[in-house]
Amino acid sequence: MTDLISRSASELAGMLASREISSVEVTQAHLDRIAAVDGAVHAFLHVSGESALATARRIDEQRAAGEPLHELAGVPIALKDIVVTKGVPTTAGSKILEGWLPPYDATIVERIKDAGLPILGKTNMDEFAMGSSTEHSAFGNTKNPWDLDRIPGGSGGGSAAAVAAFEAPLAIGTDTGGSIRQPGAVTGTVGVKPTYGGVSRYGLIAMASSLDQAGPVTRTVLDSALLHELVGGHDPRDSTSIDEPVPSLVDAARKGASMDLTGVRVGVVSELTGEGYQEGVSARFNESLDLLRAAGAEIIEVSCPSFRSALAAYYLIMPAEASSNLAKFDGMRFGLRVEPAEGPVTAERVMAATRGAGFGDEVKRRIILGTYALSAGYYDAYYGSAQKVRTLIQRDFEAAFGHADVLVSPTAPTTAFKFGEKLDDPLAMYLNDVATIPANLAGVPGMSLPNGLSDDGLPVGFQILAPARADDRLYLVGAALEAALEKTWGGPLLAQAPELETVR
User: Which CATH class is domain 2-307+391-503?
Assistant: First the structure.
């Protein structure tokens, strides 16, 4: 079992294709792993064992019959619990949706099912994707497999922890301000936020519609490329979906693995380095730049002055959109309904009682912020001004990409912190996403890949950003750096995780 769960998705795909192993064996091995360690990690909110094994049996039968199959057919996957899945509890980490069984599948779920990937279950998350630590889930904390006393990042800490703890070889996350990349950084996994519109948002429970984007969570760059190509592409049901083919991401990843970046210009964003970054984070970042330079890349420095205002702009735009999107959770149509304990049962009082009981403190905080920013007399001063800053950020990206093919920075300013350390200080919590937020405001793609351990023995992430619709550049540079790092380490970073031994 240990051998199967420690394999990458691409390795498992090759073994399945050659019929060296069966999908039932692979799926059962991961279900056994979940049963053994998820009591400690708590990556999953729901495990779909029977349906996952049913899919695995079907794929094994089709493969035995010689039917053509997708490359990832038979490789298990986990889904963040914000992805609507027909007949499977989907809560977005909130009591207000506890027990809801959706009547339809999100587009990415349809594509995963059509390709024959057994779905292991739904992973834990900060409520409605609002958080950087998964401490805001209504269903308890997910633990970081590297150190069970520390956060796994957020909002998609469940997906990242499941992959890091070898409970799933692949997972889907969503990224509104860093919720795929920041968990990737602190758990030693690979996380990718595709170009906005590159992966359908149909069937994602919306937090901030102009920022949300689904993407892969894996243990290798190639695995992310395989999953990204599978779920990406145009969807007419999503009005923001890009109507053009997905770039050749797998080809780019395989080319990058040769570690030849001759002619590639890598721009270091000066505003996303230096002061405020943990010493070990900066040290690993500079070492990674040396590896890129050794692979033939040209390293230059670029300045994006408006990035200094990105965090402030984001925390006006995102809550404003969230307050609008979450208005539908009113106790009237679906989900939780709470009637007032005494007095008349009116629509207003039911809504107030339901939202008061169903939403957690962080969700309430952001709804209040967003409603205030959109209110009469304040709209132009707050929301309107934030949108102007967003335009400046987009222009800074455009100018920087005139000089560099990709931009790079540390993914997060620190390694994983201990539970409770920042819970009572929202600003300190929000600063975890200072390096990831600009990409969401501009709609450009970003990747985080593990690039070593800090002095505290915890994983550090390296962020790569590319122009919109040039996601293949992430995979070219990311695979080259990954290959150079693994050559230095003598294998994958997760092999160095001491705490994983205790949860095995």
Answer: alpha beta
